[in-house]
Amino acid sequence: MNIHIVPLIMLIVYTIVTIGVANMILKKKLGSDHFLVAGRALPLALVVAVVLGDWIGGNSTIGVSQRGYMEGILGSSYSFALGLAMIVFAFTMSARYRRLRAVTIPEVVGRLFDPKTRLMAAIVIGVAYFIAGTTQIISGGALLAPLLGVDKWGADLIAAFIFMAIITAGGLRSIALVNVIQLGVIFIGISVSLFFSLTLIGGSVTGGFSRLLNELPPSYWSIGARNPFTLSGEVLATVFTCFAGQAAITGIFAAKDTKAAVRGAWIVGFLLMPIGLAFALLGMCARIQFPEAESLPFGLSAAPAMMLALNPFVSGIALCGLFAAIISTGPLCFLAPTQILMRDIYSVYINPNATDRQKLVLSRIFAIVLLILGGIMAVTFKEVLKITYWGFAFRSGIAVILLSVTYLGARKISEDGAFWGLLAGTVMFIAWSISGKPYGIHEAIPTISTVFISTVIISRFRKRRKDLPKEVQEAMYPEH
Length: 480
Known about the structure:
By secondary structure, the chain is mostly helical. It has one domain: Sodium/glucose cotransporter. Helix content is about 75%, strand content about 0%. The radius of gyration is 22 Å and the shape is globular. The N and C termini lie far apart (about 65 Å).
């Protein structure tokens, strides 16, 4: 296998700098609250870095470009849906989440409902993010393998080690500072790679666009090329999933105040959309350069294959941007289940009286264990994305009960209604998936509908057992 020397050297230097910045946090004395939510003192720039860094991962880069390669401009629908989701989140729940002073989404669920619903949310969200983190290791390994000239399993383990070096250094604060660098590199990387990719296929940027418009099938420029029930379901699932996205919402929990939380969500929403469009266009350039999927070199997907076709120096910049996207998401995906294990399980059911020092040490141990397990899974399994969709669907259900209790009122949404509504939604998702998505209707549509209808009906007959605490009411309903 070929080793691409110049891009490899640039990537190594970049990785060393990234880990060095992360480990600067080790010089500071941290408590568990700093490790998990950065002492709730993140300014606006770092809030954006955490939230945007989570959403711009393997799915928003490699995934979107590959979909652009296969389907055209519709590949950007994922990032547009995420952007829309964050804008909706900004004016509905971001300030409420920050005022609750929680650490995890399950903790929010517990304050609004009861311990059994909190535990269910903790297990499902924790597993979903562990699987999501594993897919980031796989994405990182897929990018590193052809550059290093090593087997895929070795590259997976290297990616896992890089994640470990970042997350165990200083928790969320470390990730936030690293993500400031990552986002700059991502924006530079995609701008450079798209500019030179268009120039490569067309002699100039305008020539490249001309080839995309004239040589790709008309369906590549149509938003009606896919089943509208499938596309609308994907958008709906993405929007609802955002409200239960532990890794991204960690930045909201950690904001220094509600103003930073709300503004951060707005900014992220508007930044996500052009990034998705750029990576979809990069995938479409790859379709011109490599007309058949089998012609993609080294078994790569569209984005890294197109980048490696460029000038070695340009390729190095572009690949650093792509790897930055993976690094910005992977550690957060493993911090999320670490937060849930500590806050929603260990501190509630195992050792409620644990000292801050014990919590900090255990947080690091949990993170290391999860990363080791994720590395093993990345080497052993290759189709974990199928499992991820199950977790996403359940997260959508959690968003339904959170929005329902917020806008219908706590008295109309009871503890039992929320718990059994989530279970009913899970059953519907499994049944709909097994049946093969009848009429092309995406699983999100019947799942979200089932959770909402079941929750409202059950709440009507099984009333809420106790009122919300005063501080929770003030956080959720400040206008009252």
